[in-house]
Amino acid sequence: MGFLLGALAVPLVAGCGLWGADRLFPPDMQRARQQALLLQDRRGEIIDGRVSIDGAWRFATERANTDPRYLALLLRIEDRRFWQHPGIDAPALARAFFQLVTRGHVVSGGSTLAMQTARLLEPHRHSVRGKMQDMARALQLEWRYGRKGVLDLYLTLAPESRNIEGIRAASLLWFGHEPLHLSEEESALLIAMARHPHALRPDRHPEAARAAVSRLLDAVSDTGWSRRGAMPYALHVERIVHEAPGALTWQWREGQRGVYRSSLDRRLQTGLAEILRETPPPAGGTWAALVVRRDGSIAAWQGHAGNGCAGCAGDMITSWRSPGSALKPAIYGMAFQLGLLAPDTLIQDRATRFGFYAPRNYDRIFHGTTTVRTALQRSYNLPAVRALDMIGAGYFAGTLDAAGIVLKLPANTSPSLALALGGVGIRPLDLARLYTAFANGGVSRPLTLDWPVEPRPGIPLIGARANRQILSILSGTPLPRGRADTGGLRVAFKTGTSYGQRDAWAAGLRGDWVAVVWGGRPDGTAVPGITGLTTSAPVLMRVFDILPEEGETAVDSAFVPARLSPALQKLEGRMGPQIVQPANGGIVESFADDGSATPLGLVATGGVEPYRWLINGVPLDTPVGITPSWKPDGPGFVHIALVDATGAGSAVDIRVR
C-alpha cells in the first residue's frame, strides 16, 4: 500500500512542481500582443498604417484565416510530427545530434515549430543554453495554449523580411491580399523567408529568393506541389502611403490594432486632399475638412492641408475651436420645436443689452425688423441671441450634450448667451455630427469609422417638422460669390466666423452627404479678412462637387477631380455640347457691395472642341488654351449659348446680381 501511494505521489509532486514553475516563469507574450495598425478603406485598399510600438508590421494571425495549402507545406517542411509530439520532437533531435557527430556540422536543427515560436517570443543567440531554454518553453507553450494556439503564435511572429512579421502582414504587404488564398510560390516564399529573412528579401535579393523557392518546391514535389510559372511576389511590394493620418491616429488612440476596414473612401479622401492642397489657405494657416454619410460613417477625413505652415501638422478635426455662427441653426431649430418661433416670425435686429452682454452684428449694422428666415440666412447676430434667450442657454447646451454633441465651455463657467455667437469650443467632428442630425430628420447618431456600419439607435435633437423648416431656410443661404445656383443640387449650409477672425467655418448637407470645412491658424492667431462665407464656403462647394449625387455611391460613380461638378458626371456620354456651368435658371452672386464683379467660369462638356461661347448673342473672345470666363457688366438676366465645331449647341439663361 505504501509503495502504491509513493508511486502516485511522484507524478503528483512532479505535476505540482511543473505547475509552480509555469506560474513563476510564465512566457513573455509581449511581442505577440504588440500589433501594428493597418487602415483600409471600405473597399479594402490600404490608405494608412502605423507599426507596433516595437517597430514591426505585425498582426495577430489564426490558422483558420490562413490558406490550408500553406499550412500543409509549412508542417511538411518545418515539423512533420507537429500534431503528435508535446512540443519537442525527440526523434528529430536525436537525428540532428547524430548528423552533427558523424558529419562534423549541423545538417538539421531538430527544432519544432513550438521551439521556433519560443525563440521568436524571446529572441536570443544560438547556443546550447538557448536550445535548452527553447525546449522548456516549447513544452510550456503547448501545455498553456495547445498545438493550435502555438501554431497561431508562429503565424503571428514568423519573420518575413524587412520589419514584417507574421503571415498576415507578409501576405498583405508583399502580395497585396489576405493569406486565406496563397499560391504555391507565395506559400513557399513565406516559408523560405522565415528561415532567412534578410538573405531572401525579395525586393533586394530576387534571384536568391527565387532559387530558394525552387529548391523548396523541388523538395516536396512528391506531394503534388509544383512550380507554375513565374513567382508573383515581385508584382506587389506595398509601400504604406499616409493618406489618412488623422483617422489613423484617432483609431490608434481608441486602442484599435490589427487590420482595420474603415468607412473611408480612398477616392473621396484623395479628392478632398487635392481640393485643400490646391486652395490657398488663410495666411499662415491651413484647412481641415470632414465628409460624412447620412448613416454617420465618415467617408473622408483631412485634418490639415499639408501645406507645411508652422504648427499645421496637427489634426484639426479633433481640435477645439470657436464655431462662430455655425450653431445658429440648432438654436432656431429648438425654438421651432418649442413653438417659440417659426420661419416667418418677425424678430428684431436692434441693439439690445442682455444683462452685461451687448452683442452686435459682424458688419456692425442693425437691420431692424426682419423674419427668422432672413435672420438665419443672413446670419444676423441679435435675433439668434434673442432666440437663445427664449429657449435658455442651459437648455440648449444640455440638449446638444444629451444628443452626443460635445461643447467645451471656458473653465469655471456655465452656458451663456455667448453660445449663439461662438462663445464655446467645438470640434469639427462634433459639428459634423450636428449637421448629420439635420440630414437624419433631427435625430443624432454617433459618427464612426467602422465598416460596415452597425445600426445604432438615434437620439432626438429636434422634431421632424422643425428640422424640415431649418433645412428649407439653409437651402436659401446666399451662395459664395461666383457660385451658380444648382437648383435641385442646392447645398443647405451655414457659415461661421469666430470672434477676432480666428476661425472660418462652412458646414452643409445635400442628399446623403454632410461636409464641414474649417480654415484658420492652429495656434489661434487672428487672420484678418477671413469669414466663413468668403473663405470656407467656396471650399465647401468644391467638396460637394466631388460627392456622388443622392442615390449614387462612390463605388458606382467614377471619381471626378475636384474641379468638376456632379452635373459634369451626368452629362458625360451625351451627344452634343452641354453647358455644365452656369446651370440653367441659376442665380449668380457676382457683384460685391462695392460694385466690383467676380468673373464667372464657363464649363462645358460633350460635342467636338473647340467651343464658341456667345453672351447675349455676342461672341466671347477666349484665347486658345485658356479656361473661358466672363465678367458681367451689370446685374440682370443673361442668355449664354455654346456652339461646338460641328455646329451643334446648347444654351442657358441665368440671373446675375
Automatic annotation (TrEMBL):
<dbReference type="Pfam" id="PF00905">
    <property type="entry name" value="Transpeptidase"/>
</dbReference>
<dbReference type="InterPro" id="IPR001460">
    <property type="entry name" value="PCN-bd_Tpept"/>
</dbReference>
<keyword id="KW-0511">Multifunctional enzyme</keyword>
<feature type="domain" description="Penicillin-binding C-terminal">
    <location>
        <begin position="574"/>
        <end position="653"/>
    </location>
</feature>
<comment type="similarity">
    <text>In the N-terminal section; belongs to the glycosyltransferase 51 family.</text>
</comment>
<comment type="pathway">
    <text>Cell wall biogenesis; peptidoglycan biosynthesis.</text>
</comment>
<keyword id="KW-0808">Transferase</keyword>
<dbReference type="InterPro" id="IPR023346">
    <property type="entry name" value="Lysozyme-like_dom_sf"/>
</dbReference>
<dbReference type="InterPro" id="IPR050396">
    <property type="entry name" value="Glycosyltr_51/Transpeptidase"/>
</dbReference>
<protein>
    <recommendedName>
        <fullName>peptidoglycan glycosyltransferase</fullName>
        <ecNumber>2.4.99.28</ecNumber>
    </recommendedName>
</protein>
<dbReference type="InterPro" id="IPR001264">
    <property type="entry name" value="Glyco_trans_51"/>
</dbReference>
<keyword id="KW-0645">Protease</keyword>
<keyword id="KW-0121">Carboxypeptidase</keyword>
<dbReference type="InterPro" id="IPR009647">
    <property type="entry name" value="PBP_C"/>
</dbReference>
<dbReference type="InterPro" id="IPR012338">
    <property type="entry name" value="Beta-lactam/transpept-like"/>
</dbReference>
<feature type="domain" description="Glycosyl transferase family 51">
    <location>
        <begin position="63"/>
        <end position="219"/>
    </location>
</feature>
<comment type="similarity">
    <text>In the C-terminal section; belongs to the transpeptidase family.</text>
</comment>
<dbReference type="InterPro" id="IPR036950">
    <property type="entry name" value="PBP_transglycosylase"/>
</dbReference>
<keyword id="KW-0328">Glycosyltransferase</keyword>
<dbReference type="Pfam" id="PF00912">
    <property type="entry name" value="Transgly"/>
</dbReference>
<feature type="domain" description="Penicillin-binding protein transpeptidase">
    <location>
        <begin position="315"/>
        <end position="498"/>
    </location>
</feature>
<dbReference type="Pfam" id="PF06832">
    <property type="entry name" value="BiPBP_C"/>
</dbReference>
<keyword id="KW-0378">Hydrolase</keyword>
